[in-house]
Amino acid sequence: MSLALRLLDEDEVRALAPEIERGYAEEIEHYGNLDGEAARRKAAQDIPQVLDDPKSDLFALEEDGRRVGHLWIGERDLQERRVLWIWDVFVDPSQRGRGLGRRAMGLAEGEARGRGLDRVELNVFGGNEVARSLYRALDYDEIAVAMGKHVA
Fold this sequence. Notes:
It contains four helices and five strands. By secondary structure, it is of the alpha+beta class. It has one domain: Aminopeptidase (3-Layer(aba) Sandwich). Helix 3 links the parallel strand 4 and strand 5 (120-122).
């Protein structure tokens, strides 16, 4: 089965934005230890800002023409180098466990090479062991780890 990227048009991006915002807020609440309202506010601020960035591209992940998720990438300047940044890689829950996330990451790496970039970077929440395990298996290095502790 063939997995491919299809760039979403503006209407498709706007239709998908609330789902992305909701998912990001849930991750911030779950892994980032923010209360629900604060997580929703942060997501409502962050997501539109990045979606409006002309260096940001949101793709449908399509397997044999059927949408199975999305990949959100863009170019960023980080520490005096240009990288392909992955904001979100999402595989529909009903399609997980079939290697689509791994294949989507390969497509992202292909996008980087096609843009003349030699590095891909992303952020992952510390408690998201499924994602962290995937990235480690694909030879991604941990660059920084933020830690915290409730002391109340």
